[in-house]
Specification:
The complex is a heterodimer of chains A (333) and B (145). Chain A is an all-alpha fold. Chain A is built from 12 helices and no strands. Chain A has one domain. In chain A, 72% of the residues lie in helices and 0% in strands. Chain B is an alpha/beta fold and 145 residues long. The mean pLDDT of chain B is 84. Classes of the chains: A mainly alpha (333), B alpha/beta (145). Chains A and B meet through helix 2 and helix 8 of A and loops of B.
C-alpha cells in the first residue's frame, strides 16, 4: 500500500480509537472516584454525553478575546495530542510514524497541548484565565525536569548496555530496561517509577496539580471563558492526552508484552498485546490519577514547583547516580 | 439552538447567590453530598457560567446584585435553564418589605423552575431538577414553552 495513504488511514483510525478510549478512561476514573467517596457515580459513558452536549451548545466568543487565537487553540490542542500517538507503539503494534521521530520528539510534543491551553487562556482576555495560564506555564516548567531525567536515565542505560538506537520508542518498548540492569539499576528504576507516577497527574493537570484550573478560586482558570464546541474540543484533547501520557509512561517503565509469555504468534499475539497494553494504561490511570486525586487536596503553585524540582529532582539525581554506578559495576562503561 | 437528548443527561449547574440568607445555599450543598449524589444523573457543579446549562439562583436580588445577575445570565451559552431555589427568590419571602430589593428573580431574568421552601429540603431541589429535565423534554418534543 501507498505509505502516505497508510499513514493517513492509520492516523484517522488511531484518532477515533484514542478519543473513544480516552473518554472511557475518564468515565472509569470518575466512577472509581465516586465509589471511593461512597457514591454511585455517573454512568461509564457520561464523558461521551458531556462532549455531545458541549458540541451542540452555543459557542460564545468573549468581546475582549482575540477570536482567531481563541478558536484555533482547541483545535491545535486536539491535533497535537493525536500527533503524539503517532509516535507511540501500542502493544506489539509499531508506531504509525515510528521511523520519523524518537523519545525526544515525544517529550516536545507532550508540551504542545498544554501550550495551546496557555495561549487560549491568554487569548480569552479574562483575568482568571490569565492567572490560570501563568500557573500552567509554571507547572509545565516544573514537571519537565523529572520527566526529562527519567527519559535520559533510561535511554542512557540502554545505550550503555549496547542497545542500538536507544532513543527510538520502538526500542524502548521491545527492550524492557529492567532486563538489562543489575540490582542497583533496579533500585534506580523503582525511583523513576515513583517519579513518573507523580509526573503523570501533573502533566494531565489533575488534582493535586490542577492549580491552573482551580475550580474554587479561579472558576475554571484557563478554561473559564471557553464554552460549547471549544470546551468540548479541549475535553477531547485532555482525554487523548491521558491516553498518550499513560502510554508514554508504560513504554518507558512497564514495557512488557503478553505474547512471549503465552507463546502466541500472529494476529492473536497482536490482540493479546493490545488488550494487555490497554489494561496497563487503565492501571496507570487508576493508580497515579484516580487514587491520588481522591486522596489529596490541591497544591499551591509554589508547592508544585518545590515538589517537582527539589524532591523529585533530587530523587532523579539519585536515580541517575545509581544508574551510573550500576553500569560501572556491571563493567559496561 | 437545537436541544439534544444529551443535554438533560449532563446538566452542569452554576450556583448564583443574589443576596440570600445562605440557608438555601447550604441545602444546595447538602444536595450535592454523597447521600444524594446527583452526579449519578450527570449533574455537576461548575465554576464558570460559560460552562453551565442550569443557573441555580437563590435570594431575593438586592439592588447591587440585579445587574450582576443579568450579566451572569447573559454569559451562559444557550440552551439554558434558570432554576430558583427558595421562597425569597419567588416573592421576596422574609425580605419582601426590604428597601433594597430589585424585585424577585423573575423580574430580572426569565425563570423556568421554582422550588419553594424556606429553605427547601434537598429532595425538593432534586424534584426541581427533575421538573427542569421534564420541561426540556417537552420543549424537545415540540410543545410550546
Ligand atoms: S428562602 Fe429562606 S432560607 Fe432560602 S435564602 Fe431565602 S430566606 Fe434564606
Amino acid at each position: 500500500m501507498n505509505p502516505i495513504l497508510a499513514a493517513v488511514g492509520g492516523t484517522i483510525v488511531l484518532a477515533i480509537l484514542a478519543i473513544a478510549f480516552g473518554l472511557i478512561l475518564s468515565g472509569i476514573d470518575r466512577r472509581v472516584v465516586a465509589r471511593m467517596q461512597a457514591r454511585v457515580g455517573p454512568p461509564l459513558l457520561q464523558p461521551f454525553t458531556d462532549v455531545r452536549k458541549l458540541l451542540a451548545k452555543q459557542n460564545i466568543i468573549p468581546a475582549n478575546a482575540i477570536p482567531w487565537l481563541f478558536n484555533l487553540m482547541p483545535i491545535v490542542a486536539l491535533a497535537s495530542a493525536i500527533t503524539i500517538l503517532l509516535y507511540l507503539p501500542f502493544g506489539s503494534f509499531a508506531p504509525v510514524l515510528g521511523e520519523f521521530g524518537d523519545v525526544i520528539l515525544v517529550l516536545y510534543l507532550l508540551i504542545i497541548p498544554s501550550l495551546a491551553l496557555v495561549i487560549g487562556g491568554f487569548a480569552s482576555g479574562s483575568p482568571y484565565a490569565t492567572v490560570g495560564a501563568q500557573r500552567e506555564m509554571v507547572s509545565m516548567i516544573a514537571y519537565e525536569l523529572p520527566l526529562a531525567i527519567a527519559v535520559i536515565a533510561i535511554a542512557w542505560r540502554l545505550m550503555a548496555a549496547g542497545v542500538a538506537e536507544p532513543f527510538l520508542m520502538l526500542t524502548l518498548m521491545q527492550t524492557p530496561v529492567w532486563d538489562v540492569v543489575g540490582p542497583l539499576g533496579i533500585l534506580a528504576l523503582l525511583i523513576l517509577l515513583v517519579m513518573m507516577a507523580w509526573v503523570t497527574p501533573g502533566e494531565l493537570s489533575k488534582i493535586p496539580f490542577d492549580s491552573p484550573e482551580a475550580e474554587t478560586e479561579l472558576a475554571g482558570g484557563i478554561l473559564v471563558e471557553y464554552s460549547g464546541r471549544n470546551l468540548g474540543l479541549f475535553t477531547l484533547s485532555q482525554a487523548v492526552k491521558m491516553v498518550a501520557m499513560s502510554a508514554f509512561g508504560i513504554i518507558l517503565l512497564l514495557p512488557w508484552n503478553l505474547s512471549p509469555f503465552l507463546g502466541l504468534t500472529g494476529a492473536a499475539a497482536g490482540v493479546a498485546d493490545l488488550v494487555f497494553f490497554l489494561l496497563k494504561m487503565l492501571f496507570v490511570v487508576i493508580v497515579s490519577v484516580t487514587v491520588v486525586r481522591t486522596m489529596m487536596a490541591r497544591f499551591r503553585i509554589t508547592q508544585v514547583v518545590g515538589l517537582y524540582w527539589l524532591v523529585l529532582g533530587g530523587l532523579g539525581a539519585l536515580a541517575i547516580i545509581l544508574m551510573m554506578a550500576d553500569a560501572f559495576l556491571l563493567g559496561v562503561i | 439552538m437545537k436541544l439534544t437528548t444529551s443535554l438533560n443527561r449532563s446538566l452542569w449547574v452554576f450556583h448564583f447567590n443574589s443576596g440570600s440568607c445562605n440557608g438555601c445555599d447550604i441545602e444546595i450543598v447538602a444536595t450535592l453530598t454523597p447521600r444524594y449524589d446527583p452526579e449519578r444523573f450527570g449533574v455537576k457543579l461548575v465554576g464558570s457560567p460559560r460552562h453551565a446549562d442550569v443557573l441555580l439562583v437563590t435570594g431575593p436580588v438586592t439592588n447591587q446584585m440585579a445587574d450582576r445577575l443579568r450579566r451572569v445570565y447573559a454569559q451562559m451559552p444557550g440552551p439554558k435553564v434558570v432554576m430558583v431555589v427558595g421562597t425569597c427568590g419567588q416573592s421576596g419571602g422574609v425580605f419582601s418589605t426590604s428597601y433594597n430589593l430589585a424585585g424577585p428573580i423573575d423580574q430580572i431574568i426569565p425563570v423556568d423552575v421554582y422550588v419553594p421552601g424556606c429553605a427547601p429540603r434537598p429532595e425538593a431541589i432534586i424534584q426541581g431538577v427533575v421538573t427542569a429535565i421534564a420541561k426540556l423534554e417537552r420543549i424537545e418534543g415540540g410543545a410550546k414553552q
